[in-house]
Amino acid sequence: MLEYFHNVPFSVTVCDKDGKILEMNETAERVLSHGQHIIGQNLLDCHPEPARTKLMEMLKNHNLNAYTIEKNGVKKLIYQSPWFDENGEFAGYIELSMEIPMEMPHYVRQPKP
């Protein structure tokens, strides 16, 4: 699956229903792993509080989590979505993390009558 995201300028990370990292694209590995191989590790072990507790709640409740952050003058959109297997069972999360401009246009599109 991640072959589509091999050279994109945003991070893609996939974990299973217990938080075990299944896949990461190159950008995610570079940004998140700090030079260490973390595929196979549990995301719960990679997050300090209060993020760890938030992740435990997400794994239990399967809710979408989306927000923006700013760090070192860089703003990012973090989008964490549950994914489901072919039987419709909760299978884990897919996280997209991408840099976005500090100021960006927002458009409200109205449906045509």
Would you mind describing this structure in some detail?
The chain has a five-stranded antiparallel β-sheet. The chain has one domain (2-100): 2-Layer Sandwich (Beta-Lactamase), CATH 3.30.450.20. The protein is globular, with a radius of gyration of 15 Å. The chain is built from two helices and five strands, in the order ββααβββ. Helices cover 16% and strands 35% of the residues. It starts with 10 loop residues before the first strand and ends in a 13-residue tail after the last strand. A hairpin with a 4-residue loop joins strand 1 and strand 2 (21-24). With 113 residues, the chain is of the alpha+beta class.
Q: Measured on Cα atoms, how large is the radius of gyration?
A: 15 Å
**Uncertain stretches:** none
Strand content: 25-35%
Q: Could you name the CATH homologous superfamily?
A: PAS domain
| CATH class wording | Alpha Beta
**Class by SSE composition:** alpha+beta
Globular, elongated, flat, extended or rod-shaped: what is the shape?
Answer: globular
* Overall number of structural domains: 1
Annotated CATH topology: Beta-Lactamase
Largest sheet: 5 strands, antiparallel
User: Order of strands across the biggest sheet?
Assistant: 2-1-5-4-3
- Topology as a string of helices (H) and strands (E): EEHHEEE
Can you count the beta strands?
Answer: 5
Head-to-tail CA distance between termini: 38 Å
What would you say the CATH architecture is?
A: 2-Layer Sandwich
Give the integer mean of the pLDDT values. Answer: 93
Oligomer: single chain
Give the number of helices: 2
Helix content, binned percent: 10-25%
